[in-house]
Known about the structure:
Blueprint: E1 8-13, H1 19-27, H2 31-38, E2 42-47, H3 48-64, H4 82-101, E3 109-114, H5 123-128, H6 133-138, E4 139-145, H7 148-158, H8 174-181, H9 186-189, E5 196-199, E6 202-210, H10 221-239
Amino acid sequence: MKKETFDILMLHGRPASGKSEIIDYLKNTPEPKRTHRFHIDRFEEIDDFPMLWTWFEEDDILEKMGKPRIHTTSDGFFKELHMWDLLIERINIEYAKRVRDEADYHDFYTTIIEFSRGSEHGGYKYAYKHLSEDILRRAAIMFIDVSYEESVRKNRRRFNPDKPDSILEHGLDDDKMEALYKEVDWEDFTAGDPNFVEVKGIRVPYVTFPNHDDVTTGRGDALGDRLEENLNKLWENYKRR
Length: 241
């Protein structure tokens, strides 16, 4: 039987654009329906937020111990820009472990890889240079498009100070949002072709999911219909990549 699901779905967008809500929606969609409507198999996630949050926690511990911070400054920025590249390399390692440890992994699983990148720290064009060819050859990309203003609004609304490590409830200070994510390079990254980006000589299909009207927060029929429309378009290009 021919496989009808993505091997890897890359999920991008500004913070609070709706990425985590989409994943939550997919988790709560029964598997046969999810496979048929969205071409998403049983899935596992690789998200760089828990990785970077661990760095902040470890650095806070080191500071309390009177030791120098390793990854981040005390006001919550990375010490060096190459830390963003390190996160991508960590994603490569996490993915390689999964396909190593389970034979025919993608016969049973879709991997959803989630991260955000702003122009200030290299953008998507630079981040994709660090992704492994194993990921690029199996990947399709969906970018969740919201304005900077909408991203800030939703980031403020979702933030729970009692759960700053939560996938669905974490947030950034306004100054960090402006510094890191006001400018994104998605349009420049995809300017060469309306359906594919080329990285390391590999053509990777993409689709831009418009979310200016915020269909993700409610996780209702409007989200399902828009997901189906965009992922079916992406699937058609994925088959001919």
